[in-house]
Specification:
CATH class of the largest domain: Alpha Beta
GO molecular function, one term: hydrolase activity
InterPro entries: HAD-like_sf (IPR036412), HAD-SF_hydro_IA (IPR006439), HAD_sf (IPR023214)
Structural class: alpha/beta
Oligomer: single chain
Order of helices and strands: HEHHHHHHEHEHHEHEH
CATH superfamily of the largest domain: HAD superfamily/HAD-like
Strand order of the largest sheet: 3-2-1-4-5
Helix content: 40-55%
Pfam families: Hydrolase (PF00702)
Number of domains: 2
Radius of gyration: 18 Å
Strand content: 5-15%
Distance between the termini: 5 Å
Protein name: HAD-IA family hydrolase
Keywords: Hydrolase
Shape: elongated
């Protein structure tokens, strides 16, 4: 630590998960199932899209979403089922360098938390095989709360759960809308691009050596 938590006024660090700590790409799954590049593009921009998936992050039931999509796009049942049963294949690995930063912050005694847009069943499946989150205190999961970023309510809920004022926490997220929402509520923010840039910001704040 360079000067400790008091120098920066930050006494907790709050991470997003997808595209900050872990890679996430739904095309990775469907590229294994769809050979034709044009069909793959159509499927990922029309059928199983990130916007549609966001409804699951917001707490809608998986069975309901899948049934609706099958009815809307007949003939694609096996692909839509793959979304429901093979979601972990959309997470190919970790963001290079991010897990090391988490471990260094934890070793320094910095309280760590997370706010993630993640559907409840997918989160439980992923969390069970990722020990990094043993280093975290509370993790607010959108699917459990039925509120997703950038809704201001999820940030207010997180601040209550974490027990720190927004002005005393640094929130790290790759999504500009989420960063803007948190900043409007008084959180310190870092718009994540890559681990080296994050490391430099943390060092400038006195949170990492």
């Amino acid at each position: 630590m360079c000067g400790g938590f008091a120098v920066s006024g930050i006494d907790a660090v709050v991470f997003d998960v997808g595209r900050v700590l872990v890679q996430w790409d739904m095309r990775r799954l469907f590229a294994q199932l769809i050979d034709d590049p044009q069909e793959l593009e159509w499927f990922c921009t029309t059928v199983v899209t990130e916007k549609w998936h966001h409804q699951h992050d917001e707490g809608r039931e998986l069975s309901e979403l899948v049934a609706e999509r099958k009815a809307e796009f007949p003939g694609h049942d096996h692909l839509i089922d793959a979304y429901a049963t093979r979601f972990l294949e959309t997470i190919p690995g970790n963001i290079p360098g991010s897990h090391e930063i988490v471990r260094e912050l934890a070793a320094s005694g910095m309280p760590l938390f997370a706010i993630t847009n993640f559907a409840s069943p997918f989160w439980r499946e992923y969390r069970a095989q990722e020990p990094l989150f043993d280093l975290f205190g509370e993790i607010v999961v959108s699917g459990d709360e039925k509120i997703a970023k950038p809704d201001h309510r999820i940030f207010d809920l997180a601040a209550q759960r974490f027990g720190h004022a927004p002005s005393a926490m640094l929130f790290i997220d790759d999504n500009a809308a989420n960063i803007e929402a948190a900043a409007a509520l008084g959180w310190n923010v870092h718009h994540f691009q890559d681990a080296p840039t994050l490391r430099a910001d943390l060092a400038s704040r006195g949170l990492l050596a």
